[in-house]
Amino acid sequence: MKPHWETWAKEAKTEFPKANSALLPLLHRIQGEEGYLSSDTIADVAHLLDLAVPYVESVVSFYSLFYQRPTGRRIIHVCTGLSCALGGSDELMHRLEAKLGIQEGQTTPDGEYTLLEAECLAACDKAPVAQVNLRYRESVDLEAADELLKGEVES
Question: Residues 49-66: what's their mean pLDDT?
Fold first, then answer.
């Protein structure tokens, strides 16, 4: 455990007196520094907030924006909700997998990209939808996928 995490935990508990309420802000802050939440980190957070480790693990595994292993610099989420599936999100995912040379859930060997599914990105009228580092890309057809990736590689 890093010493400043204790300070962060105290700050979170000051703002959110109940441990359950302080949990998400503390997890986000630590993940922002570490890049992901390891098993040891989850145990440390549980200790800092006097919560059970399985409870913290369940919270981390529930929220799709918490990562339990290292991720790439650019995280691509492809929506797989019904509207996006009908709009071609499967083909979009396959195109991105082929272009990146990885499968969903994996990170490119250079650590640049992680490709993930998202159950719903709440933009059904613009399906299929993807996000790159939480920035929405709407109506992403196969041609737009190539351009999206090209634009992200060059940025």
Answer: 95
